[in-house]
Amino acid sequence: MVTERDTWNKEQSVRACNGWVMLVVYILLLIGDVALFIYCAAQGSKGEPRVLLSVLSVVMLPVLILLMTGFFTLQPNHARVLVLFGKYRGTVRESGFYWANPFYSNGPGGRSIGRLAEVITKIEAAKSGTQRKRSLARNKISLRVRTINGEKLKVNDKRGNPIEIAAVLVWRVRDTAQAMFDVDDYQLYVETQSESALRHLASQYSYDHGEENEITLRSNVDEVSAALKTQLEERLSRAGVTIEEARLTHLAYAPEIAQLMLRRQQAEAIIAARQKIVQGAVSMVDMALKDLAEKHVVQLDDERKASMVSNLMVVLCGESEVHPVVNAGTLYT
User: Is 123 exposed, middle or buried (0-12, 13-18, 19+ CB in 10 A)?
Assistant: First the structure.
């Protein structure tokens, strides 16, 4: 049974001819062709034409021009995909000066389709007010690390609350054959899939206030970023792209509910602070009663203990400073 993965292309590394050696050979052939043409012209002026040699010298000129198109250079962290008459022949990854078969095309779409795609891209960019760079020579692929700083997306979290979220993606091409032949435009594919993965991720987690031990977008940034990277690696493996890093750069409630959620957070903070104050006050009252009883400072009945507890709780839990009234009599008057 043939699975879908069996139909994926796989990169094959090849070595092209040394460009400097081929340049010397090319110069020698060019000099030889010029010398042959001059010799045939000289013999023709003497009345001894060399027809075959003349035809050969003339034919060799366009051949040499064609051979000259086989020279190319590669910068560090660049690769060239070699396609001969529609069939993938391999990828050159090492930087340097090379010569290859001049019939190697510029990729699956050819140069004309590349120009058409660029024209369409420019028209779309003019309509949307954005610019997008696209190289005409699709046979060369950059292997350098690239960054996509995603725009803010408005999505709903797990609880249905509208939020704004954005992420930065660091990626590079791992397999040039997959990037060239398994997707139409690997750069556009990366951008589209990164947005789709981010939307899907945001819908799987709550913004905040999750259940016990529940991962949330706001409180577990590292775990969420790791989950985003895993999703992107699964989605972009078809395009021969590997993810170096994926991390959230923006996370906030949508403007229409931001003020409401801020009031909710303030209320929860006040409640949490009150709980801490009450717990501390109860501990202090309990400690005071135990110390008074153990050290036999004073003997209090239940009614006096309740009154003392009430007074201490008011003093310890009150928001403003308390001004006590000094009892000049006894405890029982």
Answer: exposed
